[in-house]
Design the sequence.
């Protein structure tokens, strides 16, 4: 885990007063949701009430911030678990929500390098700093089986049988644990109690859904038994999948770092959005890194671009049988948002270490994926530079 280190850069520092407690935790080889569950049991509140700015990589050493409502700092200071510990706790007036951070600082060790390629990798890094990085969602957004978007699509379409079948069955060669493969096979063959007993404890969503089904519940009620935080991840995966498709098209035509007429642009200085109506002026802004084009995180209240960028997004939605109105339903309600098509890389370096490894260091804004940067740095020299979609 120490080969992949990430530290949240907070949007604000705790003021020392207020009804929320901002907690910094350090976790090692643990999902964020496991930390939430542990803390909820220790302080006797629902894990749904614990705020966080973002999910951090499980196979890593990560420092991140959480917020606990109406819990005194003294109740959490000193809490430890074999895979995580509380580093600090202080009061603040408001709790954390998704995106409440300036960015993340990464220190990643790359092993088994061909050090002869290091100068080329540094040139790639320089180009990424100068031009910006295609802001793709990395494959971890889609889960171990890379099918989280398919689960989300079933939810969006109200296909509850398809939802439970995708969540609980259909073994994948991407899953290395033979017990999980056996559990999914048991589900596919109708042995629900056996499948539930086989899934490891950390597969809480699968176990809850199987418990409902084994008691004669419907696929829809199995979905309702799963905590909202997990349900949001699947819907987000479908939104991410559609975003990647739009980004792919802009990478292929070379416009991901440009502002086209009709684009909804993102101002780097303050995050404000505006419609591009003066292509010449905005081309200069894009070249200076002051503004970037955005892509869709589809929702019922999302702003669409006009012109060619708008036509592209509507074509992607039509090809995937998705409409903004589908996000008005209770199970999949989401307002939607715009996400920059590129990110600006800061504090970036590649350093050769005495043991022959290479340390990659860089800072990314909130919501960006370090693995996307690594894809660019570690790809074969003859591999085309693009952003693969998850199929």
Sequence:
């Amino acid at each position: 885990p120490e080969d992949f280190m990430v530290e949240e850069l907070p949007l604000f520092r705790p003021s020392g007063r207020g009804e929320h407690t901002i907690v910094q935790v350090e976790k090692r080889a643990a999902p964020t949701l496991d930390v939430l569950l542990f803390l909820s049991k220790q302080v006797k509140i629902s894990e749904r009430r614990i705020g966080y700015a973002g999910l951090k990589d499980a196979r890593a050493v990560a420092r991140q911030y959480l917020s606990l409502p109406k819990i005194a700092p003294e109740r959490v200071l000193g809490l430890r678990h074999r895979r995580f510990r509380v580093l600090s706790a202080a009061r603040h007036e408001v709790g954390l929500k998704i995106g409440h951070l300036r960015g993340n600082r990464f220190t990643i060790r790359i092993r088994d390098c061909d050090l002869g390629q290091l100068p080329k990798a540094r040139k790639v890094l320089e180009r990424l700093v100068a031009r910006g990085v295609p802001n793709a969602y990395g494959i971890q957004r889609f889960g171990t089986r890379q099918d989280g978007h398919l689960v989300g699509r079933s939810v969006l379409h109200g296909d509850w049988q398809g939802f439970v079948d995708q969540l609980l069955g259909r073994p994948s060669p991407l899953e290395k644990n033979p017990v999980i493969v056996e559990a999914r096979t048991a589900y596919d063959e109708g042995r629900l109690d056996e499948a539930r007993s086989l899934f490891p404890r950390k597969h809480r969503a699968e176990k809850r859904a199987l418990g409902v089904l084994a008691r004669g519940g419907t696929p829809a009620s199995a979905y309702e038994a799963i905590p909202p935080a997990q349900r949001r991840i699947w819907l987000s995966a479908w939104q991410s999948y559609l975003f990647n498709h739009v980004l792919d098209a802009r990478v292929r035509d070379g416009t991901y770092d440009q502002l086209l007429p009709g684009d909804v642009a993102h101002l780097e200085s303050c995050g404000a959005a505006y419609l591009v109506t003066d292509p010449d002026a905005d081309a200069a802004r894009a070249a200076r890194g002051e503004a970037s084009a955005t892509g869709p995180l589809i929702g019922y209240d999302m702003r669409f671009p006009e012109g060619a960028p708008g036509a592209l997004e509507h074509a992607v939605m039509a090809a995937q049988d998705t409409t903004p109105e589908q996000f008005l339903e209770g199970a999949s309600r989401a307002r939607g948002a715009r996400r920059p098509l590129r990110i600006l890389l800061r504090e970036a370096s590649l350093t050769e270490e005495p043991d022959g490894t290479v340390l990659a260091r860089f800072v990314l804004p909130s919501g960006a994926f370090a693995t996307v940067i690594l894809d660019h740095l570690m790809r074969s020299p003859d591999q085309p530079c693009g952003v693969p979609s998850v199929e």
The radius of gyration is 22 Å. Residues 257 and 346 are 17 Å apart (CA to CA). The longest strand covers residues 101-110. The chain is about 35% helix and 20% strand.
